[in-house]
Amino acid sequence: MTDFTPFEDMLRGHAGLLEDTTHDRWLRAQALFEERAYREAAVMLTELLDDPGDVGHELTDVRLLLARALFHSAQLDGTIRVATELLEHDPNEPYAHLLLGRALQRKGRTHEAQPHLRLAELLGGYRS
């Protein structure tokens, strides 16, 4: 990926040429995730949740991508926290159940993981 940071810094604040909108940050976080820069994506997604601004997308999407980024970067406690928060808002999100179950499994909490893995399979067809 080409680093345009110096160019972006130069334009930022000059006649609104480069506005850092919430949507722009969301797109960059998605790009970071796609590039497997999971820790960097997690930082940006956390910032989005802390300051959602004019969110044009669902916060469920942000939470889910954050949980995925945390899981892929082996931040299991964070994965558990974010997936649990997501399930409080949307208890029928199958991928959140899968992430929570897998994170609990990795932490050796197999008994707690089983209900979430079963729900992931029932709701979304994810095999555990």
Automatic annotation (TrEMBL):
InterPro entries xref list: TPR-like_helical_dom_sf
Q: What is the superkingdom listed in this entry's lineage? A: Bacteria
Q: Which Gene3D superfamilies match?
A: Tetratricopeptide repeat domain
Which Pfam families does this one have?
TPR_17
Q: What is this protein called?
A: Tetratricopeptide repeat protein
Task: Tell me which species this is from.
Answer: Nocardioides pini
